[in-house]
Amino acid sequence: MQLLVSVANATEARHAVEGGADLIDAKDPSAGALGAVSLDTLREIGDAVSGRRVVSAALGDAAEEEGIERASSDYGRMGIGFVKVGFAGITDISRVERLLASAVRGVRPSGLQQCGVVAVAYADTGGTTSVDPSALVDIAARTGASGILLDTAQKDGPGLLNLLSPTALERWVAMAHRAGLTVALAGKLTAEDLPIISETGADIVGVRGAACEGVRSSRVTEVKVRRLTESLQRLGTPRGALGAPLGS
């Protein structure tokens, strides 16, 4: 299982790399679960990582097709590995499918360096104010997304493991793997949660607050990231390359 650390700037990106994170995720934590950094900040993060890790970028929650296609194209052209797109406030499956298909189109124009799209489901809103996580698996597979993330939309609410049992998460991960998707889990996860998340079979575990010196809005530190990577190493889980479910 790989460790993804969300960073807000180049300094945090350097700390995450030095701490041993596998994936560096550009995100503005002050703007919600999927707050997008500016293109200039993403460029600075990319320069700080300097090809040593895969970089991803949150694009926020999609609202209209043209806008999310343009955003995925603009961010994808920065040479990153994948973009993440959510659908908060939308329960219409056909609309979510159109939006996700638009994001996938955005990263596939001729000559664009390969960049994947990760669809983001929310464990704390699914089925009521956003599409159900299981339904999003099918949509992601149909539209050509490369992965799916199950996260929490409300960062001041309960964490992922307070919303879904390990058994439920394991079933969801297995379903997404059968659909050919790389699978990530996040949502107020801590170092103590890593053994449970590892047992679900997820390919990636994503953190922000657990890598910060204090709360989620404070800064990512090398020390906190290193503690997380050492915890994963003690678990002895494979830490393979992004792009396909481990063991597939």
Characteristics:
8 strands, 248 residues, alpha/beta, TIM Barrel, disordered C terminus, globular, 8-stranded parallel beta barrel
Tell me about this structure.
This protein is 38% helix and 17% strand. With 248 residues, it is an alpha/beta fold. It has one domain (2-235): Copper homeostasis (CutC) domain (TIM Barrel, Alpha-Beta Barrel), CATH 3.20.20.380. An eight-stranded parallel β-barrel has the order 1-2-3-4-5-6-7-8, surrounded by seven helices. α4 links the parallel β4 (82-86) and β5. α3 packs parallel to α4 (93-106). The protein starts with a strand and ends in a 13-residue tail after the last helix. 52% of the residues are buried.
Structural class: alpha/beta
Helix content range of the residues, please? 25-40%
* CATH top level assignment: Alpha Beta
Count of DSSP E strands?
Answer: 8
CATH H level: which superfamily?
Answer: Copper homeostasis (CutC) domain
Number of individual domains: 1
**Count of DSSP H/I helices:** 9
> What sort of overall outline do the alpha carbons produce when their principal axes are compared?
globular
Uncertain runs are: 241-248
Task: Give the distance, in angstroms, between the N- and C-terminal Cα atoms.
Answer: 13 Å
